[in-house]
């Protein structure tokens, strides 16, 4: 008889979680976009967000004392709605924990937390066009595509990728 899986605990990330979150972010970028991020830049960015709550927060899923998943929440002000969107970013679930309801648990925690914040008007996230498994997961939870196209321009001199 196999042991049952460790129960999942969802909590706000703490400073001691910075290294694993940074490693998750690097793994996610490599896996989904083929990008090799600079670990020192990612680590600095994770530690900064953890130290400056106005930037956002991370949630982690923990099982058996091990962090098995994480996501970051940042906000966007919507003057149209007089409220904040919570952007779900840097979503990563360890491969061995995928398809086991981990993201569903994280999302349930996010939505419950948002219900306590009267000005949160919704949730947004972006996902790679080719990441069909993630898209299916998000749609199953009620998220849907929008009519918006995401555009970006990095400030000249911003370096976040490893040179090949």
In short:
It comes from Ramlibacter alkalitolerans. With 164 residues, the protein is of the alpha+beta class.
Give short descriptive properties of this protein.
164 residues, alpha+beta, Aminopeptidase, globular
Q: Would you write up a description of this structure?
A:
The protein is of the alpha+beta class and 164 residues long. The protein has one domain: Gcn5-related N-acetyltransferase (GNAT) (Aminopeptidase). It is built from 4 helices and 5 strands. It has helices at residues 18-33, 39-51, 102-115, 132-140, and strands at residues 8-12, 57-63, 66-78, 83-93, 120-125. The protein has a 5-stranded mixed beta sheet. Helix 1 (18-33) packs across helix 2 (39-51). The longest helix is centred in the N-terminal third of the chain and has 16 residues, at 18-33. It is globular and about 45 Å long. The N and C termini lie far apart (48 Å). 21% of the residues are buried. The model has no long low-confidence stretch (mean pLDDT 93).
């Amino acid at each position: 008889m196999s042991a049952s899986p460790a129960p999942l605990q969802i909590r706000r990330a703490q400073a001691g979680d910075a290294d694993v979150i940074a490693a998750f972010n690097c793994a996610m970028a490599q896996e989904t976009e083929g990008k090799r991020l600079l670990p020192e830049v990612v680590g600095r960015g994770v530690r900064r967000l953890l130290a400056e709550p106005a930037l956002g927060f991370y949630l982690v899923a923990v099982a058996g004392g091990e962090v098995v998943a994480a996501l970051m929440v940042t906000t966007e002000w919507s003057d149209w709605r007089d409220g904040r969107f919570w952007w779900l970013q840097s979503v990563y679930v360890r491969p061995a924990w995928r398809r086991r309801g981990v993201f569903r648990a994280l999302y349930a925690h996010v939505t419950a937390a948002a219900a306590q914040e009267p000005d949160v008007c919704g949730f947004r996230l972006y996902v790679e066009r080719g990441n069909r498994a993630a898209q299916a997961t998000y749609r199953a939870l009620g998220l849907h595509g929008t009519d918006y196209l995401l555009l970006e321009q990095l400030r000249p001199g911003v370096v976040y990728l490893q040179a090949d």
